[in-house]
């Protein structure tokens, strides 16, 4: 049995929930989740790594059990979310750590890494994109919203925060859907159903353009700092294509790029394979 603690930290007045496991003096691995999930997505991964690593898995502001302030009181942008998670690492005295980044967690983690390259020991990117070629056609309606942030274009992507879309994200590209537990997508939909959560998520879809604008900055960080990087990718992801994983090798030729036969939420079906890859990568 693995002892996992469920904690909250006060980050400049904002309550940030996080899961913590493993010995505090072990090498630290920070796990950053994506849309529309929470640190719950790491529920099966944490026990497979906690004997070797100190694991910290926060819920991003507006997600999961972390505070979700009203939009009038909090800037729901990726830069501001990064500020909070960056500050969380300071509050928790995490001076040096590896990052596991997924989906929305990728631009947050890459921002932190570019700000503090000396603090990052390694990066594991699980369907965490930093290249234009990694964006699939499913981003087209969102990109139309970036180009023209009208009410009509905002309403056109509202389907992305509907319950059936969450289920689709979990099941698309999975060879055997019976391996996908309903717990994950039902919990995500519970959080999405909170008053105001849909508008917050639509704000973040609009601000995702800021992440794409920073791709050259992230790539410069990869080229100049050459962090140890493992990309382990669900090859059937409907949003982030395998080309996005392969592109890491352009800037980090020694990057380790692997694919698993599943979709976006790869941990739902391949957690043991991914955990084995992480253990081997981080201990080599």
Description:
With 284 residues, the protein is α/β, with parallel strands linked by helices. It has a single domain, classed as Rossmann fold (3-Layer(aba) Sandwich). The chain has 12 helices and 8 strands. The chain starts with a strand and ends with a helix.
Predict the CATH topology.
Answer: Rossmann fold
- Which of globular, elongated, flat, extended, rod-shaped describes the shape? globular
Number of domains: 1
Q: Average pLDDT, to the nearest integer?
A: 98
Q: What is the topology?
A:
Layout: E1 4-11, E2 14-21, E3 28-32, H1 45-49, E4 54-58, H2 78-91, E5 97-101, H3 105-115, E6 120-125, H4 140-147, H5 151-156, H6 163-171, H7 182-192, H8 197-213, H9 215-225, E7 229-234, H10 242-246, H11 248-251, E8 256-260, H12 267-283
Parallel strand pairs: 3-4, 3-5, 5-6, 6-7, 7-8
Antiparallel strand pairs: 1-2, 2-4
List keywords for this structure.
284 residues; alpha/beta; Rossmann fold; 8-stranded mixed beta sheet; 12 helices
In short:
The chain has 284 residues and is α/β, with parallel strands linked by helices.
């Amino acid at each position: 049995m693995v002892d996992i603690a469920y904690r909250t930290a006060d980050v400049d007045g904002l309550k940030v929930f996080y899961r913590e496991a493993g010995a505090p003096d072990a090498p630290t691995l920070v796990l950053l989740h994506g849309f529309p999930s929470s640190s719950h997505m790491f529920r099966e991964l944490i026990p497979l790594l906690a004997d070797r690593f100190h694991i910290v898995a926060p819920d991003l502001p507006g997600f999961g059990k972390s505070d979700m302030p009203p939009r009038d009181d909090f800037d729901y942008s990726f830069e501001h979310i990064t500020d909070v998670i960056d500050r969380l690492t300071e509050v928790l005295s995490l001076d040096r750590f590896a990052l596991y980044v997924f989906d929305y967690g990728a631009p947050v983690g890459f921002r932190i890494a570019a700000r503090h390259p000396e603090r990052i020991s390694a990066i594991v990117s699980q369907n965490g994109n930093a290249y234009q070629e990694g964006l699939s056609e499913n981003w087209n309606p969102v990109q139309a919203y970036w180009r023209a942030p009208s009410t009509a274009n905002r309403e056109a992507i509202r389907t992305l925060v509907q319950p059936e879309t969450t289920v689709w994200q979990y099941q698309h590209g999975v060879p055997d859907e019976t391996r996908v537990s309903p717990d994950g997508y039902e919990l995500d939909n519970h959080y999405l159903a909170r008053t105001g959560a849909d508008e917050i998520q639509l704000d973040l879809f609009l601000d995702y353009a800021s992440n794409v604008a920073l791709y050259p900055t992230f790539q410069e960080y990869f080229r100049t700092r050459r962090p140890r990087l493992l990309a382990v990718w669900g090859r059937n992801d409907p949003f982030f294509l395998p080309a996005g994983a392969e592109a890491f090798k352009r800037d980090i030729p020694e990057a380790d790029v692997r694919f698993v036969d599943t979709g976006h939420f790869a941990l739902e079906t391949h957690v043991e394979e991914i955990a084995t890859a992480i253990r081997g990568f981080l201990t080599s």
